[in-house]
Amino acid sequence: SGLQRNACIALGNNGDPRAIQPLTNVLLESEPLVRSHAAWALGQIGGPEAVGALRMALNSETESNVTQEIEDALSDALGEKFGR
Q1: Which DSSP category does 77 fall into?
Q2: Degrees to nearest 5, angle at CA 80 with 26 and 31
Q3: Contact, 27 vs 57, CB < 8 A?
Q4: How far is it, in rounded angstroms, from Cα 70 to Cα 64?
Q5: pTM score, whole prediction
Q6: CB of 77 closer than 8 Å to CB of 70
Q7: What digits encode the pLDDT tens for the residues 28-76?
Q8: Exposed / middle / buried, residue 68 (Cβ in 10 Å: 0-12, 13-18, 19+)
Q9: Distance separating alpha carbons of residues 28 and 21, to the nearest angstrom
Q10: CA count, 13 A, side-chain hemisphere, 15
Q11: CA separation (Å) from 57 to 36, 39, 60, 62?
Q12: What domains lie within the chain, and their CATH numbers?
């Protein structure tokens, strides 16, 4: 999981939209810590596909800390506040 987490960070810092699909897969299938980092990375990449993946994940996420990270990532991606 440490490797996946680090990969998410690297992909987010890179900002390459080609990483959106792999990050989406991680966001939906991994452990909570890795899902949080995938959400952050998607927020850094931004764009309609990343926002769609984050919104989809927000609807199904059960861990509150991951939900918060998804909301923060949406805020980053959309450039506006996405609060409760």
Answers
A1: H
A2: 20
A3: yes
A4: 10
A5: 0.91
A6: no
A7: 988 999 999 999 999 999 999 999 999 999 999 999 999 999 999 999 9
A8: middle
A9: 11
A10: 5
A11: 11, 9, 5, 10
A12: 2-78 (1.25.10.10)
Cβ proximity of 32 and 64 under 8 Å:
no
List b or e across 13-38, with b for residues whose CB sees 16 or more CB atoms inside 10 angstroms: eeeeeebbeebbebbeebeebbbbbb
Contact assessment for residue 74 and residue 46, using Cβ atoms and an 8 Å cutoff: no
Q: How many CB atoms lie within 10 A of CB 63?
A: 14
Tokens of 41: 């990375």
- Structure token digits, residue 7: 């990969």
Residue 62: left (phi > 0), alpha (psi -120 to 50), or beta? alpha
